[in-house]
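Retry 2 of 3 after timeout on previous attempt. Resubmitting structure tokens to design endpoint.
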């Protein structure tokens, strides 16, 4: 998606403000951060909404506030965050990530919730050639999830792992622990022993990418992981009582 320099600037500040609190952002906060009028900020937020890069929300009325006046706030959409990631990637690795993401999701949709060992093998084979950090991390995490037999039951047995997948904090430590625990479950069942000699290399590269990954990229990666889990039949609703 093509963004003007001004649209990209506003979107970057919206993403940064949202990332600081995890809460929807009032357009006056964007205006203050950028040193522009509140009306200029509001107008640009609406343009971003129309492009599908931001979402408009109305906060509920609170005691003491005049009836009928609901504060307008905005949050970036996953598409908005991904647009920044792609545009910031001068080497065009963002295009590689988009291709990898869509290929994985389309194959999982076709599999209809059944883990595919063929897809797992394809992902592991392509890891050494990946240039995009997001593409590499996304492929590795998907391969690990596909390596764990009966992952749904494993998540039910291990609340800590379930929280890693479904928690809202897109932190560096959460991503590192997620990969480590998934690999541990995979090796424990003995089905991935043939890959054991190279897992150290895979995880070292993964760790390097994650440690250098900014908040936006981490959030994009977590959004992708949750999509993968839902296609594997392991959405949040599955653990409502867990």
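Retry 2 succeeded. Sequence:
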């Amino acid at each position: 998606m093509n963004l003007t320099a001004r649209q990209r600037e506003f979107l970057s500040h919206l993403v940064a403000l949202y990332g600081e609190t995890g809460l929807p952002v009032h357009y006056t906060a964007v205006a203050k951060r950028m040193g522009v009028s509140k009306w200029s900020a509001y107008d640009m937020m609406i343009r971003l909404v129309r492009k599908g890069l931001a979402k408009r929300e109305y906060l509920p009325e609170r005691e003491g506030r005049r009836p009928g006046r609901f504060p307008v706030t905005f949050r970036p959409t996953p598409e908005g965050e991904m647009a920044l990631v792609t545009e910031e990637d001068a080497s065009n690795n963002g295009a590689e990530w988009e291709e990898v993401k869509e290929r994985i999701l389309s194959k999982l949709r076709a599999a209809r919730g059944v883990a595919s060992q063929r897809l797992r093998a394809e992902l592991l084979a392509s890891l050494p050639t990946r240039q995009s950090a997001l593409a590499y991390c996304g492929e590795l995490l998907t391969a690990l999830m596909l390596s764990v037999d009966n992952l749904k039951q494993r998540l039910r047995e291990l609340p800590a792992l379930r929280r890693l997948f479904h928690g809202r904090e897109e932190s560096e430590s959460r991503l590192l622990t997620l990969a480590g625990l998934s690999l541990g479950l995979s090796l424990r069942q003995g089905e991935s022993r043939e890959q054991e000699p190279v897992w150290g290399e895979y995880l070292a590269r993964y760790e390097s990418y994650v440690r250098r990954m900014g908040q936006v990229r981490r959030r994009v990666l977590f959004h992708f992981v949750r999509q993968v889990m839902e296609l594997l039949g392991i959405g949040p609703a599955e653990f409502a009582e867990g």
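Attempt log closed. The chain has two domains: 5-84, 91-239.
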